[in-house]
Structure formats: C-alpha cells, structure tokens
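Please check this protein record:
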Amino acid sequence: MFFRKDYNTPGPGIRPDEPEKTGPARLLQIIQLEVGSIFLLNLLFVVSCIPMVTIPPAFFAMNQVIRKMMLDQPVLCFYDYRTAFRTFWKQAYGAFFLTALPLAASCYGAYFYLMQAAGNPVMFLPFLVCSTILLVTLLSSGCLYGALSTGMKFRPALRMALLLGLGKPLRPIVAAIVGYGLLLFGILELPISLIYVLSLGFSVPCLLSNFFLRTLLRDYCPAPAETYQEEESDTIS
C-alpha cells in the first residue's frame, strides 16, 4: 500500500490540452515539476553506489527515472529507482562495461600515444584508433541507455545506439559535452564541489543529457516496453 500509485488523484503536472513546450522552456518545466525527485534521485544514486559494485545498476536506474521524466510519466522516485535497480541489473552491467571501459581505455590510450607521437610519428596511428573509439563511445553511450530504457533487447539497443550516435550526431554531441562535462567538472573539483556532487552532481548531468536526446529517442525508439510496466504492476499488487 505504501508504494501504491493513484493516478486518479489530481495533482501538479502538465495539462493534457497544454501545447508541448520546447527548448529551454521545456527544460524549466521538467525541473519545476520534478525538482524534489531530482534531489532525491541524486541522493539515492550516491547511497547505492557506496558498495562500488552496484555502480552499474545504480547508473542504469537513475537513467530509467530520468527517462520517465522526459516522457511526462508519473514518477515515484524511490519506487521507480528501486524497481529499475532490481529489474534491469543484467542490462545495467552490460551497458556499463560497454561504455565505461571503452571510455576509460580509449581516453588513456589517446593521451598516451599522443605523447609518444611527438618523438615517433608512427604512434599517430594508434592515437587515431583510440580517438575513434573514444568518439564513438561518447556519441553512442547516451543513446544506448535511452534505447535500453524502452525495453529493447541488448543487441538491437546497441545497434540503434550506434546508428543514432554516428548517423545523427548533433544531439549526441551536445548531450555528451553537457553530461560528461558537468560530471567530470564535479569530480575534478572535489572537495570544493562536494555539496554539489552530493545534491545534484549526478542527477543533473543525467537529466541534461537525456533532455538533449529525448526527441531523437522519441522518433527512433519505440515506446517503453509493456514488460516493464507489467513488472511494475505486479510488484505493486
């Protein structure tokens, strides 16, 4: 009963007949409606990452909740986060290792070979390989989490992420710069940024990244899978 949702009860939200806002107005609208959930989501993410091994499902669950905000779906932050954390942990580890590991390895490799290339021009070749892997991963990582949030199987979601990241790179580029940029800024500025990191340092970059990808995912990915909604209903009852 504690987690039971009652969608028939009037409350704050977007009127069905209200024209959809776009750009900064739409972003401000989402923040205004979900400000409490954004703070709580960041706290849930930080706490659930403490064991370290739970970082992949925590990151996936945070993306799931943010995607619900983008789709104007009712959000019960704790319940939705816990459900996604427990339901999609397998996909979470797959997505994390297909994004975090290539990002870290290619970033280090690009830096290492670039330094070596100053004395040996042949090293430009592995530098280009690492740079290409880094760019592809940056552009497709956000799309991968977005595609998986619709309930797509892993291989189709990965294929869709690569097609969107490389075929329509404008929004993925902005999403990567804003999302990874703010995340990196918060981490590099520790301990000065400690309050920001604990309160908004993870949920806000995730929110902004998903915001710039929302129309791309809406146009090229199917609606959220019924299997997730059925799982959610079974858990409530």
In short: The longest helix spans residues 89-117. The chain has ten helices and no strands. Residues 1-12, 225-237 have pLDDT under 50 and may be disordered.
